[in-house]
Specification:
This protein is α+β, with helices and mostly antiparallel strands. It has a single domain, classed as Gcn5-related N-acetyltransferase (GNAT) (Aminopeptidase, 3-Layer(aba) Sandwich). It is about 30% helix and about 30% strand. The chain has 5 helices and 7 strands, in the order βαααβββαβαββ. Strand 2 and strand 3 form a beta hairpin. Helix 1 packs across helix 3. The longest helix is centred in the middle third of the chain and has 15 residues.
Length: about 150
C-alpha cells in the first residue's frame, strides 16, 4: 500500500470540514450514549484545545483529524477521527502505531478515552491499550511502553 500520511495544523478555514467530519464520525456514538449532538455542542467539541488539532492528509487529501497533547511524560490522543469513507483501511492503526513507537522511545505513557458505544475501542485494545478507568459514557485507556515487544507490527 503506497500510503503517505502527513499532517498540517488545523485552521479556521477547516471549520466546515471539521464540523462535517465530527458529525459523521462522532455524532452517532454521542446519540447512542444519549449525549448532545446539536451543532453548537459539536462546534464546542471541535474548538476544545483547537491549538492541538491537526488535519490528517492521505496523499495530500484531508481524511481526518488528530488532536494530540504531548507533555513531559505522557502523550494524550485527545481525538482521532477518520472519515467513514476511509475507515477500515488501516489508517487509524498506522497513525496510532507511529504515536506508540515515538512514545515508547521517549518512555511516555499514551492515554486516550473512547465512548463505550464506539467500536474503535477494539482497535485500541488490539494495539495494547488497557482500560484503566471509566465513567458513565467512556472508557479511559492507557498504553505503557513495551512497544518493542509488540509483535503485530
Amino acid at each position: 500500500m503506497n500510503t503517505i500520511i502527513t499532517y498540517r495544523k488545523a485552521s479556521e478555514n477547516d471549520m466546515d470540514y471539521l464540523l462535517d467530519l465530527r458529525t459523521k464520525t462522532m455524532n452517532p456514538h454521542y446519540a447512542d450514549s444519549n449525549l448532545p449532538t446539536d451543532k453548537e455542542t459539536t462546534l464546542q467539541r471541535i474548538l476544545y484545545q483547537f491549538d492541538k488539532a491537526h488535519i490528517i492528509l492521505l496523499n495530500n487529501e484531508p481524511v481526518g483529524l488528530l488532536k494530540i497533547d504531548k507533555v513531559e511524560n505522557k502523550t494524550e490522543v485527545m481525538q482521532l477521527q477518520i472519515d467513514p469513507s476511509q475507515q477500515g483501511k488501516g489508517l487509524g492503526k498506522m497513525i496510532l502505531t507511529d504515536i506508540l513507537e515515538e512514545a515508547s522511545k521517549d518512555k511516555k505513557t499514551v492515554t486516550l478515552s473512547v465512548l463505550k458505544t464506539n467500536k474503535a475501542q477494539n482497535l485500541y485494545a488490539s494495539l495494547g491499550f488497557k482500560i484503566v478507568g471509566e465513567d458513565e459514557h467512556s472508557f479511559f485507556m492507557e498504553f505503557q511502553g513495551g512497544f518493542e515487544n509488540f509483535s503485530q507490527l
